[in-house]
Amino acid sequence: MATTLKDIANQANVSLATVSRVLNGDSSLSVGEDTRQRIFQVAEELNYTKHQRTKNKGKFARIAVVQWYTQKQELDDLYYMSIRTGIERACEQVGFQVVQIFESKLDQIPTAVDGIIAVGKFSKRQIQRFKQISSKLVMVDYDGLPSECDSVTADFEHGTQLAIGKFISDDLTDIGMIHGSETTSDHQESIPDLRLHYFEREMKKRDLFRPELVFKGDYSSQSGYDQMITAIDTLGDKLPHAFYISNDPMSVGAIKALQERNIQIPERVSLISFNDTTIANYIFPGLTSVKVATEEMGENAVLLMEEQQTTTRDYPKKLVLGTKLVERKTTF
């Protein structure tokens, strides 16, 4: 005898209506993730034919979301938390079950997953390992094309052009930069800061690039503070009137350093950051920043994963989301 929705409802201890709406992917239904997963599991155990992936291809897939950050690091840099929020929301809408893996612990990824969404910077070796676990892979905040996998990234080039253009429109041409340096989570490969690449290129086009005004940190608030102190101490009166800084945490540290040295913002030094996380709006003074659509990056990663689950193609896709400048009080 064929399994019915009522059979699933009885075994899962939920209402018939709840079973029907969950199995039909009703995103407006407010139901806990544990309940949703229990219904999926019971449906599979009872071999409910309408639930089989051959007929509902792409729905109910189990997706591992691998973060290269620890949970503590994620709290320090809300950029990746925002991406994860977008992934989780979109997965709930399409009916994907999420398995969260922090700190790139590949040994914790279940072998029985239908796909992997990897958030952050990963080495070729790690990407190959992902592919061994599942052929369906989407990279977020990292260009996956060289490794022949789908990816979602932000437009660092245009964002950097916006920042430089804003400074120049304010008649500021002595522009410094505090950028980041990092490695993949297994420390096997160094990752260049694309913002530095585009900054140097754009400034050289205008014959304005001065390498002595560029300082390297590690994307942390403390690093932003340390590098700005170094700039103040080494440059003295030649401290540039503008700084482009690679992310919001570093910018927060830089602002603290300027305030401690009684250097007025933006009267003496203007600042533009990159990412525009929530901290940019609440720090004093409000931080002008290049906005990245982080939640939308996560959502688009899920759409690529859904496409992989439901269709077949023999080429990778790369989605590049646009950026815009949000002006606040660290610029004129």
Automatic annotation (TrEMBL):
CDD domains on file: HTH_LacI (cd01392), PBP1_GalR (cd01544)
Residue span, HTH lacI-type domain: 3-59
Keywords: DNA-binding, Transcription, Transcription regulation
Listed GO MF terms: DNA-binding transcription factor activity; transcription cis-regulatory region binding
Listed InterPro entries: HTH_LacI, LacI/GalR-like_sensor, Lambda_DNA-bd_dom_sf, Peripla_BP_I
One protein family per Pfam: LacI
Name under which the protein is recorded: LacI family DNA-binding transcriptional regulator
Organism: Paucilactobacillus nenjiangensis
